[in-house]
Amino acid sequence: MTKVHTVFCPGCAHKVRLTVSEAPPHDGQANLPDGAEFVCLDFGEACTEGACPLTGSPGIVMGVRLARSHLNDGRFKTMTATCQACGNVTELEVLDSDYVFCTVCETTSRWTLLTLDDETRIAVTLG
Ligand SMILES: [Zn+2]
Asked: Are residues 8 and 62 in the same domain?
């Protein structure tokens, strides 16, 4: 079990849980230097404005890390939409008002809400 540290976050003004993830469990492309990275279990949508004061990483990066780690999936709102990356109609985790994370192919996409003629709103991902 990964060790979880409780740290006071000056950005959120409360204690958050920070852990270090190992290299992602996917083999294949090594797209992360050394693999280990900080993951905040208490990431929230407000964190995407600016950088995370604890790790110095852009807030959205912290959101992607948490989504990819699956350590606290309940943290995200989800919606069903077609993922532009894999083409599946799938569950997307909402990182913030600009980005969603596909739980199938683990791609981060921009998204928007379209309002149709009959006032129905549908979420679409953008390339
Ligand atoms: Zn996808």
From this structure: yes
Average pLDDT, the chain: 89
Residues 70, 80, single domain; the answer is no
Contact 82, 89 (CB under 8 A): yes
Q: Compute, in angstroms, the gap from residue 72 CA to the centroid of ligand 1.
A: 19
Domain boundary among 74, 93, 113: 74
Model confidence pLDDT, tens digit, residues 11-63? 999 999 999 987 555 555 545 456 688 999 999 988 998 999 999 999 999 99
Domain containing 100 equals 76-127
Q: How far is the CA of 39 from the centre of ligand 1 (A)?
A: 22
Cα angle: 50, vertex 91, 33; to 5 degrees: 50
How far is ligand 1, taken at its centre, from the CA of residue 81, in Å? 10
